[in-house]
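Discussion board: Methods & Data

I've been asked by a reviewer to show the raw model output for two of the constructs in my manuscript, not just the figures. I'm not sure how much to include, so I'm pasting the format here to get opinions. Each protein appears as its amino acid sequence followed by a line of discrete structure tokens. Is this the kind of thing reviewers expect to see in a supplement, or should I convert it first? Here is construct A:
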Amino acid sequence: MKIISSDRRLRSLPAALGAAVWGDLARPSIPFPGGPRGHRTLTAVVWLLAVTLYFAGTLDLAQHYSLGYGPAMALTVARIVPLVLALSRPRPAWWTQLVVTVAIAALTRPSSPAEPWPWAVTSVLALTATLTVVGLRASRRAILAMWLEVLAAGAVLAALVPQHGGWYALLPLTVILAVAAVTVNAVRSRGDVQARLALAEERGAAEEARASLLQERARIARELHDVVAHHMSVITVQADSAPYRVADVSPGAAEEFGAIAAEARRSLAEMRRLLHVLRNEESPDGENTPQPGPQDLPALVETTRRAGVEARLELAGQVEDLPAAVGLSAYRLVQEALSNVVRHAPGARADVRVRQAADALHVSVVNSPPAQPRRAVEPVEPRAGGHGLVGMRERVAMLDGEFTAEALAEGGFRVTAVLPLPPVPAPTPTLTPTTSGTP
């Protein structure tokens, strides 16, 4: 087993070296730090550096390495092309830059002992810039491999032509490339951390929105249970009293009424248990109070005025005679809208209009721009639940209504909702209770 393991390690070592030297530079999976904006900034810097390198490199090779301006210009252009190519084709860019730099060192000799060799100053600049651009998207082992490749190429040149340099001449580029590699790794690591942080914030915001939605739905469920429980109680009372209120009820019908009342009581008991569980999740104060409706809007508007908002209320139509679910939703919509005005538009004026039409209840809350900068204030009514527009949309969608929330051109905000009303049932004849029946 040990021999097999050793063979596998020996076979994996060439594969790892090949990946570091060649494969990791093919199609880097690491994006540029900073996203598209970072890529645009890096592209501008690379082109500026390329223009600078064109003039400086030509003068450097012509004046310090005994080349004519024509060959010096051609070799300088050969160094610029890989630098620009590194933005999109890292592997050919790096190997072309390395080959061109080695070729320049092999074809040139310094005009004086004071000039560095084998690496000219502009060659150091071109190699460092190319390694930096490629390293921003390459793996760490690829960066290390590039650094070792430059060190190996310099060692071969210093060994073949010792009279023009020496081993000490390799030190500056080796140190500069090492610093560049460490810097690139740090920049890329920072970009990775920022990307992960942005992703975590995005996921956190999504989870918070989902939790708010679920919490608001639970709140709506609690309130609807109150409404449904009321109707179930009415059904129970009517079924129990039907044999005494209706004349000539047959024994079979009376038994049927009794079964209806029993099932209604059983359902009501189950509903109360579930309602108790829902309420006990948070157990806020006042949770067991009767659910509000449009008749409570004047008190709500007055509370809003005391909070510093000039609020006005207009009630049109018979808004008091509404289905419980519609009335409760209308109250909650106005409550949440006014709370948002107090929190986010201090000093603004709020106009509340509730109008009952033949087939729907129209609710509108419009506020003017804030008269003063935002400040932290308490909501209109301290309460659990309530998550702004999320809760409003959920309530209106529950009733198959229409909801709109939009910013106004002059700086205010408008919230409107249309809550459908059930059709009015036809009047039924009134039955006169018998006087001969006994309980």
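Construct B, same format:
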Amino acid sequence: MQTRKKSRQIQVGGLAIGGGAPVVVQSMTNTDTRDVAATVAQIGRLTEAGCEIIRVAVLDPEAARAIREIRDQIAIPLIADIHFDHRLALAAMEHGAQGIRINPGNLGGQQKLAKVAAAAKMHGVAIRVGVNAGSLEKDILARHGHPTPEALVESARRNIGLLEALDFHNLKISLKSSDVLTTIAAYRGLAQVCDYPLHLGVTEAGGLIAGTVKSSVALGILLYEGIGDTLRISLTRDPVEEIRVAYELLRSLRLRQRGPELISCPTCGRCQVNLFSLAEEVERHIQKIATPLKIAVMGCVVNGPGEAREADIGVAGGHGVGIIFKKGKILKKVPENQLLTVFLAEIDKMTREQTPNRP
């Protein structure tokens, strides 16, 4: 993997972004921000899954006021997502938003943008310049014909310039497109001419399968090339799934490691156990474990331990009986109807051994 591009570092609610800091995982709530209880509950689940920054939609003054209550009940930085109305940006910051996401060009002119930048300076708030292929400036779109990578970069540079003219530099930048190749080319282009931290994402990526594939291809290539300081996997799903995919992506590139890694075989004609169910139950069980373990779930006692000998702990099914192994060596044989229960207990035991202070 190429050396990570050195971007300038900013702070969002005390969290370092860019400048060599670990790539930060973020998501966005899909609750009504005005429903404080529902929003806080969802942020709690996201935080437990590993989310490090959360964004909420601010559609009206009531949503802006809700930010104070929400922020007081969560443990990660809170970003306000603003479109068109600069007054909502001002209100969100006044009520405790630690970052705002705006498109500077659609706030109604430089005078209104100046008010937002001044408030952001006063409150110590970072601004994400969010460029989106679906809402490019008309003149840029006319010049390029459609949302090309070059058009996205031009829009980003223009909007960065608007804030730099106000002596505001506490920025991170995103260039969102639903097209994978456009996304890759746009971020590559901006990374060559800009040293602000970059937030990666493929917008409107789709459901679990399509969204995971598109995001993993685009973001995986960019991260491999050393580009990117924060990321969001956008899925039409429970946002907790976004966090799971994000950490698997980062783990595959050895950029971040959080919680267990599950490896499992795709099954074949030798499999004599319901491996799909077994793997799903194990995966569900380990979601709340933060200890970095490698766990193998294999369908065949012949090849299981050998194929997964690098795993910390694993299970291999058989005909009426399965084996549990550690580091490729058999630990015990277990009747099939007890296999899941015993295996989960062994995982929990290993977790406690590696984190002695855990109750």
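Answer (T.O., handling editor elsewhere):
This is acceptable in a supplement if you add a one-line summary per construct. For B, something like: The radius of gyration is 23 Å.
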